[in-house]
UniProtKB/TrEMBL annotation:
Native source species: Cyprinus carpio
GO CC terms: cytosol
Keywords recorded for this protein, A-Z: Cytoplasm, Nucleotidyltransferase, Transferase
Family assignment from sequence similarity: Belongs to the IspD/TarI cytidylyltransferase family. IspD subfamily.
Catalytic activity: D-ribose 5-phosphate + CTP + H(+) = CDP-D-ribose + diphosphate; D-ribulose 5-phosphate + CTP + H(+) = CDP-D-ribulose + diphosphate; D-ribitol 5-phosphate + CTP + H(+) = CDP-L-ribitol + diphosphate
EC number assigned by the record: 2.7.7.40
Localization per Swiss-Prot or TrEMBL: Cytoplasm, Cytosol
GO MF, one example: D-ribitol-5-phosphate cytidylyltransferase activity
Domain D-ribitol-5-phosphate cytidylyltransferase C-terminal, residue spans: 274-413
GO biological process, one term: isoprenoid biosynthetic process
Principal localisation: cytoplasm
UniProt protein name: D-ribitol-5-phosphate cytidylyltransferase
Pathway assigned in UniProt: Protein modification; protein glycosylation
């Protein structure tokens, strides 16, 4: 029942937006050097998500047309020192999960069936490594257990959890308690409260020497399988291994309720909008506007390039936001070349790309006098590329030599551009906004 890993080497380009430190930089950090042993991940994803109150289990709810679990998987797959990610799902969601693996090109994933409880599912996931004949799931030295609905896990924490597990046998992330814990009497009255400073909330991820956690599950009782909730406790109770506890960042929260999906979407939007590439035409006015925009977009990391030719493929592949500047009369050739590049490189598979096409009107013609077929072509293009996960917006700005008026126009252009990149509102694609 295991899914073969996709053999394609063409990994979707990952901007590393969802992590505090991206994978490209992490490869240069000396801290990564100690991971010279096999590491695997088990993601139990068999829950029904009753608390979310939606017909779709929360791990399969989509953000930007991508299931939440895919974001979580990518957080692990992007790390070269993690070998295999075993995703454990219910039988009824097995085919759905296989489709996600294929659609988003998750090359390290094996999908297996879960059990009737969380602990049974985790045990099923651990047993996937027992088959010595299956090269897709080699036995790891350390296994990380994580929640499928915690997509914002950082590499630094994963590294600390992994190394502590190798040294201690078990490790786990913790967070300070937000609320005071109280006990109630059988009659519904306050019995006593706990001193919050002495306690911590147990979170995910948790790491274990594989032999330790597998042995713990082999020894645990039916009561543990049915009602247990803490893997670290099983390692302590059945193997005598006291876990090293590591305080994690606030991003460890998991999607539990419907409102958490909106919060996750907001985080993804914010992180995706941290950088932009400004592409300017050859005209002097467009080049000057590009410089001014770059200065105004001080909340983003921006690069300015002269055109979207093949020689600039590096710039096209490292961000999800593009501002394409051209003067009146320019066609969509530059935008079309960008879209073609994205199709060839699979750049839009994991995250949507935003292209803001800014047309600098030098002719003093009113917007209403533009040719109808030009507007129709723009809307048609936007409607076509949105199917490929590209959001195309249009803005027209009137050029003027009056300094005060031009400054106000550029400021307004900046505000609209930032809003389009941050909101990523598909409903606005194909519209030509005016400054």
């Amino acid at each position: 029942m295991q899914q073969e890993r996709c053999s394609s080497s063409d990994r979707p380009l990952d901007p590393g937006c969802l992590q505090a430190r991206d994978a490209e930089r992490s490869a240069d950090r000396p801290a990564c050097a100690p991971v010279d042993f096999p590491v695997a991940v088990v993601l139990p994803a068999g829950g029904s998500g009753e608390r979310v109150g939606l017909p779709t289990p929360k791990q399969f709810c989509t953000i930007f047309n991508r299931p939440l679990i895919s974001y979580t998987i990518q957080a692990f797959e992007r790390l070269p020192w993690i070998g295999t990610v075993v995703v454990v799902v219910s039988k009824e969601n097995h085919d759905l999960m296989l489709n996600i693996v294929q659609k988003f090109n998750h090359t390290k994933v094996n999908v297996i069936h879960g059990g009737t409880t969380r602990h049974r599912s985790i045990f099923n996931g651990l047993q996937a490594f027992c088959s010595t004949s299956n090269s897709l799931t080699p036995k790891p030295k350390v296994v990380i257990i994580h929640d499928a609905v915690r997509p914002f896990v950082e590499e630094d924490l994963l590294l600390k959890i992994t190394l502590a597990a190798k040294e201690q046998g078990a490790s786990g992330a913790i967070r300070p308690l937000v609320s005071t814990i109280i006990a109630t009497s059988s009659e519904g009255y306050l019995d006593h409260s706990l001193e919050r400073a002495k306690y911590r909330a147990s979170e995910m991820p948790q790491g274990f020497l594989y032999d330790i956690i597998f042995q713990a599950y082999q020894r645990c009782s039916e009561f543990d399988f049915e009602f247990g909730s803490e893997c670290l406790h099983l390692a302590l109770q059945y193997c005598g291994v006291n876990a090293k506890l590591i305080e994690g960042p606030p991003t460890l929260w998991k999607v539990t309720y419907k409102r958490d999906l909106a919060a996750a979407e907001a985080i993804i939007k914010e992180t995706l909008s941290r950088s932009a590439c400004i592409i300017a035409g050859a005209e002097a006015e467009a080049a000057e506007l590009a410089k001014t925009l770059q200065k105004n977009l001080n909340m983003m990391e921006t690069d300015v390039i002269p055109c979207a030719k093949e020689s600039n493929a590096e710039y096209l592949s490292k961000t999800q936001n593009f501002i394409h500047l051209s003067t009146t009369g320019s066609n969509f050739l530059g935008v079309l070349e960008m879209v073609k590049h994205f199709e060839d490189t699979d750049h839009t598979r994991l995250y949507p790309v935003v292209i803001v096409w800014v047309q600098l009107n030098m002719t003093k013609q009113s917007v209403d006098s533009q040719k109808t077929d030009e507007l129709a072509a723009f809307r048609s293009l936007a409607s076509e590329v949105i199917q490929g996960n590209v959001l195309l917006y249009g803005i027209q700005i009137e050029h003027t030599k009056v300094p005060e008026q031009w400054e106000r126009s550029v400021e307004r252009l900046t505000q609209i551009t930032v809003a389009l990149i941050r909101d990523r509102n598909a409903a606005l694609t194909g519209q030509l906004l005016h400054v």
